[in-house]
Specification:
- 2 copies of one chain form a homodimer.
- The first copy, chain A, has 235 residues and is α+β, with helices and mostly antiparallel strands.
- Chain A has 2 domains: 15-148, Jelly Rolls (Sandwich), CATH 2.60.120; 150-233, Winged helix-like DNA-binding domain superfamily/Winged helix DNA-binding domain (Arc Repressor Mutant, subunit A).
- In chain A, 43% of the residues lie in helices and 21% in strands.
- In chain A, the strands form 3 sheets. A 4-stranded antiparallel sheet of chain A has the order 1-8-3-6.
- Chain A is elongated, with a radius of gyration of 20 Å.
Chain lengths: 235, 235
């Protein structure tokens, strides 16, 4: 569905565009087509032949791949201010993954042609795009290492640690995950099953390392969880 | 060791530099420091704090990571004409992997500062670099999918298929891998053990799908191997 009131929307909060002037951003906004999605709608279909660059103006999305057996693999979760779809816009090849909205979402699409013109005209913007690509390669490499060297249990520990670090350590050495992480989401991020996630979390609860409250999961001892992960990862 | 005779060496065969004029390439060559390595020497140490971009002028190298347990993971093999080390040169972060020479190798190093200046001045070169980064992301995603959804046996089949496709199909539907792939190299590429690779190859030989000759491994029926891989990958 088309957005009725795009006049109030701008690309000013798209992070990689921050290196451009407000005037250039406004020009880009006029070149975009704007679309609103409800939660859990498909934004990019891996099978589609679009090559546009998409700006995530409002909401959050999940970049996923579905295996033959129907298993969902989460590659990344992106928040307001990100852009996506740059691989196909850059190399012209098919989409490497599907993208689903997690919340109500507003997307602005820029044609690959306009995107490439921007890259050619604004070297600082091109540098931002290269940095984002480099960080994608690094994140993928880390996941390849984890998948190649850690068992599923350890990968769940590592994912829990990642979320706890994002939430921040409190004075008493704990961290609070709120809302409680969905088992299926964690499983999809570390390539295992919901059942394994549930079992590992139960084991950790029995050891007193995590505690489930009504609306939050408390990591009781962040330092101990860090030790467990570092032992196997060798960080 | 320093290269004595660099006068005969140029960057003319470095593929991503092909978009630049011969004069610019010669300028870059003069800014580089040149080094020769014997086979199996370390070119980039993952722990090092260098940020240079490296041109692979002669020879071939392997991009690897060593796990805590000492297991070797091959991320990529690169041939003459490639460049490497671009992640750190772009984002200034530490090296993501180590690089070892496979053969006698000549490397030309360009400082990150000069590299970034080149990117800013030559948008077509920046585009080449973005395409290369995009292909690294795609290859990593494929490996994440394989690691997440295929068993070790199927990953060995898939690696065999990849090598057979590189070698090319012959009129009789076979493909010839020459020299015979080293089990440890295959294991390192698909994150399994040498023993698993040996067992899978033996199984395939028993089924008549591969045949070991004195100096080559013959994939007897490429189409059948393709079917086996497509069945599990869903390509």
């Amino acid at each position: 569905m088309t957005v009725d009131d795009t006049s109030s929307l701008s690309l000013d909060r798209i992070e990689p565009l921050a290196v451009l002037s407000p005037e250039v951003r406004a020009d880009i906004a006029r070149l975009c087509s704007w679309k609103r999605f409800g939660p859990h709608e498909q934004i990019i279909d891996r099978q589609s032949d679009t090559r546009d660059l998409l700006f995530l103006v409002r909401g959050s999305v999940r970049v996923v791949i579905y295996s033959v057996s129907g298993r969902e693999l989460t590659l990344d979760d992106l928040k307001e201010g990100a852009f996506l779809g740059e691989l196909s816009a850059i190399d012209g090849h098919p989409r490497s993954a599907s993208v689903m909205s997690l919340t109500e979402t507003v997307i602005a699409s820029l044609s690959a042609e306009h995107f490439r013109r921007l890259l050619a005209q604004h070297s600082d913007f091109a540098m931002m795009v290269m940095k984002r690509l480099a960080s994608m390669v690094r994140a993928s490499t880390d996941r390849i290492i984890d998948l190649s060297t850690l068992g599923a249990n350890n990968r769940v520990h590592a994912e829990l640690l990642r979320q706890a670090r994002l939430a921040g350590e409190r004075d008493d050495g704990s961290a609070i995950l709120k809302p409680i992480p969905v088992h299926g989401d964690m499983a999809s991020r570390v390539s295992t099953t919901r059942e394994t996630v549930a079992r590992v979390l139960n084991d950790l609860a029995r050891q007193g390392l995590v505690r489930r409250e009504r609306d939050a999961l408390v990591i009781v001892d962040l330092a101990r969880l860090e030790e467990m992960v570092e032992e196997v990862r060798g960080e």
